[in-house]
Design a protein that fits this description.
With 234 residues, the chain is of the alpha/beta class. The protein has ten helices and ten strands. Helix 3 runs parallel beside helix 6 and helix 6 runs parallel beside helix 7. It binds adenosine-5'-triphosphate and magnesium ion.
Length: 234
Amino acid sequence: MITISNLKAGYGKLEILHDISLTFAERQFSAVLGPNGSGKSTLMKAIMNLNTVFGGSIQLRERALIGEPTEAISRLGIAYVPQRENIFDELSVLENLQLGARVLPKDERPTALKELREIFPILGRRGAQQAVTLSGGEHQMLAIAIAWLSKPSIMLLDEPSAGLAPAIATDVFRVLLELREQGITLIVVEQNARRVLQYCDYAFVLREGMLVFQGSAEECLRDEETIKSYLGVH
Ligand SMILES: Nc1ncnc2c1ncn2[C@@H]1O[C@H](COP(=O)(O)OP(=O)(O)OP(=O)(O)O)[C@@H](O)[C@H]1O
Ligand SMILES: [Mg+2]
């Protein structure tokens, strides 16, 4: 469980997130929604200590994360898949996966890579291919797979379905549901509210750096008018 209280964060001296308080529940699939520039990626970066925090607290269960090096936060079991530059383009798919597996003890790596091929079958067939040549969906699967290899208890995914055709986005969400079945807590930034609400348990809506709405997926779908007005979509 990640608990954020009165978080103010941004870049340099610029405050982007204003007084955010929320809890990402354990083993749930939480979505972070909001229009462009509302601070969704900034929230993920704040959890990973990749920007400036001006105040408030971020706790992983009882442990304070603010000020911890990003490496240490990853070692606590939080894997982050950024919105961009989330794989090594010039390496092959297999090399990317082997790099991802390096955080595991040596004797666990073969089993993890084997299990990975069951969750992400498409990658098994693409091992020798240079990562830059992957399709959009394969690219996202690879980025998620690399993060999964560190055996995280929490995964932060920044727009994993952006730019994908609807059928391919569905494949990505199916994989995410499987990861949640494994007990992984998912925190997923998504532009397409209607789509992610079909899969997530709970959603948070940001607007101009503030938390303006939260509720279960069902509540959000029932209250679609509110969501629409918050997100500015029609
Ligand atoms: N490195 C940075 N330096 C300064 N300002 C930044 C930086 N990164 C983002 N911002 C600003 O912070 C605000 C929030 O950006 P953020 O990337 O968190 O939005 P977002 O909700 O993820 O948007 P999108 O849906 O387009 O990805 C924007 O106004 C953006 O210009
Ligand atoms: Mg973003």
